[in-house]
Every structure is written in structure tokens, then in C-alpha cells.
Amino acid sequence: MAINYRQKIINLWIVFLLGTLFHTQLGLMPLFHGLDVVESQPATSLNEVSGIFWLMLGFFILPMLAIIGNTFTENKRYRVIHFGLTIFYGVMNLIHLVLDLLLPQVIWYQIALMVFLFLIGLLLIFVAYQWMKYPVNRQN
Questions:
Q1: Helices (H), 29-107
Q2: What is the model's pTM?
Q3: Do 84 and 131 contact (CB within 8 A), yes or no?
């Protein structure tokens, strides 16, 4: 059976994105029950929080671009950049997990999801590393 690192990585990015979306949704679900969210920033206009929205947009778009990149390329330079991206997301997941543990009220189902996402991130780093080291197919 052939090793298909690209497909593994694409699948892991999709699982990561779905988990991240669910993490966001879980954080907002209390609002639908008339409860406050644990961590919020009061604002009177969208302009006050637009920076956060732009950062969130970037955080979601980069994995989508990685999925597209993995679909259409396998050159060595891209593999190295992609591996760096997986390291960045692994570090960001760890920081986010630690910050969630430091909140005044720890939401354990969110922590469980963040641990799962961190483990997916470690697996993604491992597979991306293997792909980075794998010889480039000259036939494509």
C-alpha cells in the first residue's frame, strides 16, 4: 500500500478545522440559553472587535489554504513551509489550552475538546514531518 501523506494531512486539517469550529460553537452555546459566556470583551461596535475577527479569519483561512496547497503541490519548499505552519498551530493550540485552564471558571468539556485538538495537532506535525522528509515524486 502506497503512503499518501498528502491525503492524511488533508484529512487531519479537516478534522482540526471541524474541531475548532465546534470549540467556537461550544463557547457561544450559553448565549442561546440566556447565560453569559465565560470570557467576553464588551464592545459597543463591531469596529472595536474587528481586530479579533481578522485574527480569527486568518486562523481559519491558513489551514484551508494548506488543504488547497496539499491538494495541488508536493514540492520540497512547500513541504517545509507547511511543516512550519503545523508547528505554529501546535504551539497556538498549546497556548490556548493553557489559557483555557487559567480562566476563572474552567469549562471541562472545552478542555477535553482542546486536548483532542492538541493531539490532532501533534499527529499533524508528525505526518507533516514525515512528508517533508519523503523524497519528492519527480513524475508529477
A1: 46-72, 76-101
A2: 0.87
A3: no
